[in-house]
Amino acid sequence: MSYLKLFKKSFFQFQDLQQAKKIILAKVVGHLTLLSFILAIPITVQTMAIFQSVQQDAQEIAQMIPNFTIQDGNLSVDSKEKGFIYQTDSIIFTFDPDEKRTAEEVEQDLVGNFFSIGLLKNQIIIILPASENLTTLLGSNQLKIPYSNPALSGLNGADLRASLQNNQLPWWIIPLTLSIAIYPTFLSMIFTTLMTTLIANLYLNFRRIKPHFLDTYKVLVFASTLPVILAACVSYFAPGFATDTFIMMASFFIFTLSLKRPQEKNS
After folding, report:
1. Which of 75, 95, 238, 250 has its C-alpha lying 20 to 30 A from 196's C-alpha?
2. Could you give the dihedral angle defined by the CA atoms of residues 242, 245, 251 and 257, in that order, rounded to the nearest 10 degrees?
3. Which pLDDT value is given to residue 130?
């Protein structure tokens, strides 16, 4: 059976999924990549919505930023300018030229999915919503950049306001976000399908059917097609949906359905 025919049958004709054992491994990996791409779409849409929200809030915050310069690695303002904390729908912004707040206090401002950004006396601190993927990539959800960094040597209030107010999301941010999102979803799909394969092999042993790990894995990958599409649709509207658990349970259920035809023939 060709890959295209098996792909079509993976939606409703579950009894034919056992034919996946004859599919070469390269096509199975390709199908796994396709499923990862599907799962990455709602993540990309949600991320772009966050970007757009942050962009609008940044433009709002830009109007609040006073004139300042960087002198000897410290934030310098006119004596009449005072520090402040300003909150939008997605950003908690701290402007503190008087060194009244610490980085730890700025970190404590972080609530839910807010970004916490602080222009402190001697550094910029950016605190992002904590997540496992972010911690894996960056090592922390905090970015602390001292003003002594050469990249910030020319930072000033006027340029920062202009940058925030005129900032537009480039066209390539969507494909870039999608390509980045595929990486964790691909790893997640590998883990989910491997775990489900182990469960399926235990089930086969219980049914006194001699399992072959690779064959079972191939069938499970195609059995996860419909669950992945359903999970992607649900997670689009409910970001907190337990995608991995749903895919694992639904794929295993479809796998058990794929065993019915051989049993009926033997009876």
Report:
1. 238
2. -110
3. 60
As a whole number of angstroms, the distance between CA 120 and CA 101 comes to 8
Residue type, 235: S
Cα 44 to Cα 52, 112, 163: the distances in Å are: 12, 19, 25
Sign of CA dihedral 45, 49, 55, 58: negative
Nearest of 243, 234, 220 to residue 31 by alpha carbon = 220
**Using one digit for the tens of pLDDT, what is the confidence trace for 86-118?**
888 888 888 998 888 887 888 777 666 567 888
User: What is residue 227's three-state secondary structure?
Assistant: helix
Mention every residue, 6+ apart, whose C-beta is less than 8 A from residue 47.
177, 181
Strands 115-119 vs 91-95: parallel, antiparallel or unpaired: parallel
Q: Would you state the structure tokens that stand for residue 239, as one six-digit string?
A: 């970001």
Residues 6+ apart with CB under 8 A from 239: 42, 46
Q: What is the pTM of this model?
A: 0.71
Helix ranges (DSSP H) in 65-208:
103-108, 132-138, 157-166, 173-206
Alpha carbon distance 152, 156 (integer Å): 9
